[in-house]
Specification:
- Helices cover 41% and strands 12% of the residues.
- By secondary structure, the chain is an alpha/beta fold.
- The longest helix is centred in the C-terminal third of the chain and has 18 residues, at 272-289.
Length: 328
């Protein structure tokens, strides 16, 4: 895909023939990884709600990460969020769903909805083989995914990107698979994982979980300077350089955006939860800018006098004195 097409159309340049099908997300990641296009710039949705997905869909993000792993949304909510992102963005935004664990059915639900997927906590070759198998159709690619009989409507939403191949072979090449490496053991196993499981499209180093796993201060997932941490990151980076056909993904925002995003083909540049936390700063500045009302002694005295003026037993509306408490 040309950079000009992506600049003009966004991720709609990678749309499938129907918005009920996943984007050609694998191709989008490959183009970004090869430098043919800028990195995919995504929004992390930590609060998985349909209203939020609908609201942000037209904003122009290349991708939206729906966090199904750490929210209480069910299959129907997740599916609706994916559809809102797909349809309300008119195909300009690719939904990625982080599934809850390695469950075969959950992976199928996310893919059936039309999303690409993020698989958390991948630690071994066997785990990687299992989750990729769950995401693929057909024995030739060691796939165990079940073909949904009515997910796409024959002759209406099942047109193929490449008509010379089957629908299911096409979809295998459309939806992307991203794994998260989130333990020290996983970092050391990554070389074997990427060697034995070639259909992984991108890898995200989960720094928060990895630091917790290593009994290091979490630091909000922002890394650290401990020798054991720097050594672990160096192993990860060397492995990704060795397997340079696989894209790197991660956060990249704020003052350290360029540093954080270096070498990444998928960059989460914003997050709903971070934006909402910014409201605390608005509250703090408002408390500084909006002090208590200043009332003169004459105003207070008048208020106290009027508070006793009504002889019918009903307190006047000026019964409140300057300290904000109703007078007894």
């Amino acid at each position: 895909m040309s950079s000009e097409s992506v600049s003009k159309l966004g991720m709609a340049a990678y749309r499938a023939p129907s918005l009920f099908q996943p984007h050609r997300a694998r191709e989008a990641l490959r183009d970004a990884h090869a430098g043919r296009t800028p990195p995919l710039m995504g929004l992390y949705l930590g609060l998985s709600t349909v209203a939020t997905a609908r609201f942000i869909a037209p904003m122009g993000f290349d991708a939206v990460w729906v966090d199904w792993e750490h929210t209480s949304c069910n299959v129907e909510t997740m599916t609706t969020m994916v559809h809102e992102i797909m349809f309300m963005s008119e195909g300009k935004t690719i939904p990625f769903v982080r599934v809850p664990g390695h469950d075969h059915a959950a992976i199928g639900f996310a893919l059936d909805a039309g999303a690409s997927i993020v698989i958390p906590q991948v630690e071994t070759v066997a785990e990687a083989q299992y989750v990729v198998s769950s995401a693929k159709y057909g024995a030739k690619v060691r796939g165990t995914r079940s073909a949904p009989p009515f997910r796409l409507i024959m002759g209406l939403t099942d047109d193929c990107v490449d008509p010379s191949r089957s629908l299911y072979d096409n979809i295998n090449d459309q939806a992307a698979i991203m794994i998260q490496i989130e333990t020290l053991a996983a970092i050391h196993n990554l070389d074997a994982i990427l060697t034995e499981v070639p259909d992984i499209d991108a890898v995200w180093l989960g720094t928060l979980d990895a630091r917790v796993n290593m009994h290091l201060p979490a630091n909000g997932g922002m890394g650290g300077q401990e020798k054991e941490w720097l050594d672990a990151v160096a192993v990860f980076d060397r492995t990704m350089e060795k397997h340079r056909h696989v894209a790197k993904a991660g956060f990249g925002f704020g003052e350290r955006q360029k540093e954080m995003a270096k070498g990444k083909s998928f960059v989460a540049v914003a997050a709903d939860v971070i934006a909402l936390c910014g409201m605390m700063g608005e509250l703090a500045s408002s408390k500084e800018n909006l002090p208590a009302l200043v009332r003169g002694k004459e105003w207070v005295a008048k208020g106290e006098t009027n508070g006793h003026a009504n002889g019918n037993g009903v307190k006047d509306e000026q019964e409140v004195v300057a300290n904000g408490h109703e007078k007894a």
